[in-house]
Write a structure and sequence with these properties.
By secondary structure, the protein is of the alpha/beta class. It is about 50% helix and about 15% strand. It has an 8-stranded parallel beta barrel, surrounded by 7 helices.
Length: about 300
């Protein structure tokens, strides 16, 4: 219940225009700005610099140009063209050719056909430049349509794409079986949105138990799943199950968010596991940032201290 209240509170704050203006003014202003704990920067140059540092440590990366729920078709086209530009810059920089995106950023809430066309433009560029494109999952009203759009692209022959499932949604085991049958790559996360209990497990224990079940389903029947968690208990459960079933460490990877549990990232690397870091960047970082705070309210004090320092 506390987790649900925390998510609801911070997602309410995320819709505050005044708070967004304040955070946008100060969060990235200095190299040690408070938002930089979770956000690589506002520009692709900053994101590439972060990616190079992480790759120098032996980590893989996926870059996410932040943005969601655009309001017009021209905005969706602009976001698509921005992603194509980002892909060109990534290819030129020689870093990992792996990106993540949200369908509402490409116009899903405006016109599905436009969104599909925009996604196809990105996937076509990905085929040409050898990119993997992760279609992120948003809150539950978009689960069906996201999976349907993804499967449409898959059936049209796009194999350079994967998607995401959230263990807190009651439906995710059926969705995992569906994606395993396709042969698609899945990133498994707990889920960061505030959801009604009719569609999502209300307790952390239930969410964690579902995460373990889904992990095992993806490890046995899936195709190079990404186990995305910072929870040492769930990570150890994954490792133990893989050992018991003789599943080699190169058949899956762990994923973590930029700025969170760097110690755990390093220890997994040292133990011989593959670790990919999700690197978000862009000017529209505020909603993502607030979701991270909702997951870990203890970080609020860190942000407040940073904000006070910035305003001096």
């Amino acid at each position: 219940m506390i987790d649900a209240l925390s998510k609801a509170f911070f997602q309410t704050l995320a819709r505050s225009r005044n708070l967004k203006r304040l955070a946008s003014r100060y969060g990235m202003r200095r190299p040690d700005g408070f938002a930089r704990r979770f956000i690589a920067g506002e520009t692709i140059d900053e994101a590439i610099a972060v990616a190079r540092t992480l790759e120098g440590q032996g980590l893989s990366v996926t870059l996410d140009y932040l943005g969601e729920s655009v309001g017009t078709i021209p905005e969706a086209d602009a976001a698509t063209r921005a992603y194509l530009g980002v892909m060109e810059r990534i290819a030129a920089a020689g870093i990992t050719r792996n990106i993540s995106l949200k369908l509402t950023q490409l116009g899903l809430t405006i016109d599905r056909a436009t969104c599909v066309d925009n996604l196809r433009r990105i996937l076509d560029a990905g085929v040409t430049r050898d990119f993997f494109v992760r279609v992120d999952m948003e809150n539950s009203p978009y689960t069906d349509v996201t999976l349907d759009v993804f499967e449409t692209m898959w059936q049209q022959g796009y194999r350079n794409a994967g998607t995401v499932l959230q263990s807190y949604l009651r439906r995710s085991e059926a969705d995992a079986a569906r994606l395993n049958r396709l042969g698609a790559r899945v990133r498994l996360v707990k889920g960061a949105y505030n959801e009604p209990r009719e569609v999502a497990y209300p307790s952390k224990a239930d969410v964690d138990a579902a995460f373990v079940r889904l992990t095992q389903l993806l490890l046995v029947d899936g195709h190079y799943p990404a186990i995305a968690t910072h929870d040492p208990v769930l990570i150890e459960a994954t490792r133990a199950f893989a050992r018991e079933r003789g599943i080699a460490s190169d058949r899956y990877e762990f994923q973590m968010l930029y700025g969170i549990r760097r110690d755990l990232q390093a220890s997994l690397l040292a133990a011989g596991y593959r670790v990919r870091v999700y690197v978000p960047f862009g000017r529209e970082w505020f909603p993502y940032f607030m979701r991270r705070l909702g997951e870990r309210p203890a970080n609020v004090g860190f942000v407040v201290r940073g904000l006070l320092r910035e305003r001096r």
